[in-house]
Amino acid sequence: MENYSKEFTIQRNDIGNAGTVSSLTKRELKRRGFSREFVKTVTIGVYEAEINVVIHSYGGTALLEITDDYVQITFKDTGPGIENIENAMTAGFSTASSYAIENGFGAGMGLPNIKAVSNEMDLSSSPSGTTLRIRFNICSDCYES
Amino acid sequence: MKVKDILQSSEFHLISNESGLNKEVNGIFSSDLLSHVMGFAGENNILITVLNNINVLGVASLLDFSCVIFPHNVKVNESIINKANELEIPLIGTSLSTSKSVLSLYKLGVED
């Protein structure tokens, strides 16, 4: 199938629309005939990353790329950056606002969940922005039989 | 077992409309933290939560839950009910606590 690339905009604190990127990603993966298990795995990673941009950043973009070999999604925001990446990667550690927590987020499981479900994950951050790239390798078992 | 079978018990009542009642039920998951739900819940699970906001439906839709149960007589906003009807995710209310809801569902035949 042809390579696919699409960029999305994610607004700060737009919790009502959080899940749009993951929902459209899920739809595209289903259209391509991937298995339910693979779709779920990717969807979890994309949703967690999308929520992070919504609740922690000033807003940003998500670039979804699908080739024959992988599904990759790269999130870029415009700050304020992650103060301590090691802490952020620790399950249960959270800096979420009370607004995020009231909406059911901020369990401190986002980045650990992403790492657990993906094949590759790169995270870099400075006060001017954070970039998170996550990749899911496509294998023959990833398709609906 | 299907979602509509849960409604045979007088302890549970339907909040949304009847779309999605024929969905298969397979297991129960309860949490009010959506990352825990994302990380650990499975397809066709019943989600039990007191979290009354639209993101519950986002997660329920992404993970293909069978329905969402609100314990403790949690009041569910009209906007959430409308969205659930659109997504065909049944919303069920109960006066039971979270733990008693789990026990009651188990007695009805839902396992795990």
Could you characterize what this model shows?
The complex is a heterodimer of chains A (145) and B (112). By secondary structure, chain A is of the alpha+beta class. Chain A has one domain: Histidine kinase-like ATPase, C-terminal domain (Heat Shock Protein 90). Helix content of chain A is 34%, strand content 28%. Chain A has 5 helices and 5 strands; from the N terminus they run βααββαααββ. Chain A has helices spanning 20-31, 36-56, 85-88, 98-102, 110-117; strands spanning 4-11, 59-66, 70-77, 120-126, 129-137. In chain A, a hairpin with a 2-residue loop joins strand 4 and strand 5. The longest helix of chain A is centred in the first third of the chain and has 21 residues, at 36-56. Chain A starts with a strand and ends in an 8-residue tail after the last strand. Chain B has 112 residues and is α/β, with parallel strands linked by helices. Chain B has a single domain (3-108), classed as HprK N-terminal domain-like (Udp-n-acetylmuramoylalanyl-d-glutamate--2,6- Diaminopimelate Ligase, Chain: A, domain 1), CATH 3.40.1390.20. Chain B is 37% helix and 13% strand. Chain B has helices at residues 3-6, 34-40, 54-62, 78-87, 98-108, and strands at residues 13-14, 28-30, 46-48, 67-70, 91-93. Chain B has a 5-stranded mixed sheet with strand order 1-5-4-3-2, with helices on both faces. The longest helix of chain B has 11 residues, at 98-108. Chain B is globular. The relative contact order of chain B is 0.25. Chains A and B meet through helix 1, helix 2 and helix 5 of A and helix 2 and helix 3 of B.
